[in-house]
Amino acid sequence: MAMWIQAQQLQGDALHQMQALYGQHFPIEVRHYLAQWIESQLWDSVELDNPAEEAKAKCLLDNLVAELQRKAQLQGGEDGFLLKIKLGHYANQLKSTYDRCPLELVRCIKHILHSEQRLVQEATNVSTGGQTMDSLSQRHQQINQAFEELRLATQETENEMRKLQHSQEYFIIQYQENLRIQGEQRWRGQLSERTQRETTLQSKRATVEAWLTREASTLQKYRLDLSEQHQKTLSLLRKQQTLILDEELIQWKRRQQLAGNGGPHEGGLDVLQSWCEKLADLIWQNRQQIRRCEHLTQQLPLPGPMEELLSKLNGDITDIISALVTSTFIIEKQPPQVLKTQTKFAATVRLLVGGKLNVHMNPPQVKTVIVSEQQAKALLKNESTHSESSGEILNNNCVMEYHQATGTLSAHFRNMSLKRIKRSDRRGAESVTEEKFTVLFESQFSVGGNELVFHVKTLSLPVVVIVHGSQDNNATATVLWDNAFAEPGRVPFIVPDKVLWPQLCEALDMKYKAEMHSGRGLSEDNLVFLAQKAFTSSSNNPEDYNNMTISWSQFNRESLPGRNFTFWQWFDGVVELMKKHLKPHWNDGAILGFVNKQQAQDMLLSKPNGTFLLRFSDSEIGGITIAWRLVWNLLPYTTKDFSIRSLADRISDLNHLLFLYPDRPKDEVFAKYYTPPLSKAVDGYVKPQIKQVVPETDTILDTDGDFDLEDTMDVARHVEELLRRPMANQWSIILTDPRYNSPLIECF
């Protein structure tokens, strides 16, 4: 309800914008009387493009209707009678309107709430003054001020236009009067006598012609001045359009691309759409004015350059509106960037000026095809590739729909599927998971009663096509590199082959935080560990890596030294393991993870027996191992192991493990994740329980740091004692020295 209270404090244009959000599709009275209930519902949890979410939307609709009916029943007394009837009517109206399309109700309410939030935020920023206004608000204020200048300029030319039209109409009347005088003179000239009337006509004709000469010059000056004003307005329109399309919209698209790597959500399009609609409105008004100027010029031709000037103005304004329409045909929801054949996928395209230009009056159809990188380059060069594609997409046609509640014109492709793909010849060491395609969306529609016809097209972010799940890892690497390092306005789909290490760190941290769904990303120590792995370095100083570059080959083409996997494959294995099984433990700070064997041993040496830590395996993709004071490293656990028994339960099973590094009792950290004890026998059966067991080992600690004769005798006595125990043949004795990576003596 807090949002609604603030929304009611809006003033001026902001208040009018807020009121315009409501209507028959969703009455403002419903918003007012159910404010608290509406703001407490999880509208954003409903995916509008997913038909499976319709049941959730239907539940929200039913609850809304029930809440309205309940509110109506609470109204009593004489004053509440009319309100009771009105609320009951609204309940029936909403039920009737949205019962067959409940997702549209959710779309409508989400749009209303987001718009109110934006209006309140903008009003708050303005009222707090320049000291606290952030750069985003300042930029928005700058754009809004420019729109006010354009509105005033357009209104001024409209006023001048009317004056010109009035003056020209009066000129034509006087011109016709002059023609009448001339006609009467010719008639009287045929008479033999010169009369007083003829003298009067001669004088009147001279007066009118002198006035026409002066007025023709004045009209021409009016026209030239108006043309100059239009040129200035068009210049302002171009500047404003460049700011919105080449900066704001491009930044939104860049945020959308980074969101593919786990970056912050790109944000809604409502503000951008409102700006684009204002542009469309102003451009169209100026275009109509220029067309009227052309009509007036044709109606009364006068000597001078007006015809050429108006022709240029008409061409310029048409170019401006063409750029606006073609640039605002955008992909609101991108298709998946790793696209598997024979798998259903979805996408949404939107025309930001569709509602304002009434494109929805004749709903256009959108078609999709998949094209290769080379075909995408040819498209941007305007080379003819209309019929070319690199595969076959099923369900690739969709009609754009206008949503009156939100004022959006969009096409929702819900059930597309890539049936087949045609690959290009690969270059050098390039693999199929490095080949990039794109989904092309194209449509055609008319504006202004078929005055202008536009063929629009837009390309998706690059997609990598796979045919098997095993290719997903390498395909994701291609997508991550492209999303992170693509430059705006690039030739499809060129990315640098090398980047600075800190740039890659930023991309990896963004990906990691997104997958963990927490603010705990990669620390400086974690990134140093990754740098050591990537560059086969031993330096622990982060600054040593700041100016180093890493190539695509180092990232995901060349295997790490002594391994059969790449840097990315190792990192992605860690991410997948954490995401599926260990996310809560990472977010709790229980997993150090990015620590090598030697570092683990050094950290544990000074700790009491039973102290352990969790580190990612160096030798196995997607593996994590327990290192502790007596047994340095257990065989790494993988996803397969955790699908059988969780990490917390495995740690609980090992009585040797007492303290999580540095000194936290293990139960304090992991007890909340332990599986509860099994219940007693049911129907005479006792359910077996899986429990982890580590083969018993005995450790002899060399306290003086030198392995000498005395230590040898200790080992001999210990071995003799072990051999007298039962199951002696199953014992293993390993003599180690923490200063070395390999055992000194192994006895079995």
From TrEMBL:
One of its GO terms (cellular component) is cytosol. It comes from the Eukaryota. The keyword Coiled coil applies. The keyword DNA-binding applies. GO terms for molecular function: DNA binding; DNA-binding transcription factor activity. Residues 586-670 form the SH2 domain. One of its GO terms (biological process) is cell surface receptor signaling pathway. Keywords: Activator, Coiled coil, Cytoplasm, DNA-binding, Nucleus, Phosphoprotein, SH2 domain, Transcription, Transcription regulation. It is found in: Cytoplasm; Nucleus. Its main location: cytoplasm. It holds the Pfam family STAT_linker. PROSITE patterns: SH2 (PS50001). Residues 133-167 form a coiled coil. InterPro entries: p53-like_TF_DNA-bd_sf (IPR008967), SH2 (IPR000980), SH2_dom_sf (IPR036860), STAT (IPR001217), STAT5_CC (IPR046994), STAT5a/5b_DBD (IPR035858), STAT_linker (IPR048988), STAT_N_sf (IPR036535). SUPFAM superfamilies: p53-like transcription factors (SSF49417), SH2 domain (SSF55550), STAT (SSF47655), Transcription factor STAT-4 N-domain (SSF48092). Belongs to the transcription factor STAT family. This is Signal transducer and activator of transcription. It comes from Scophthalmus maximus (Turbot).
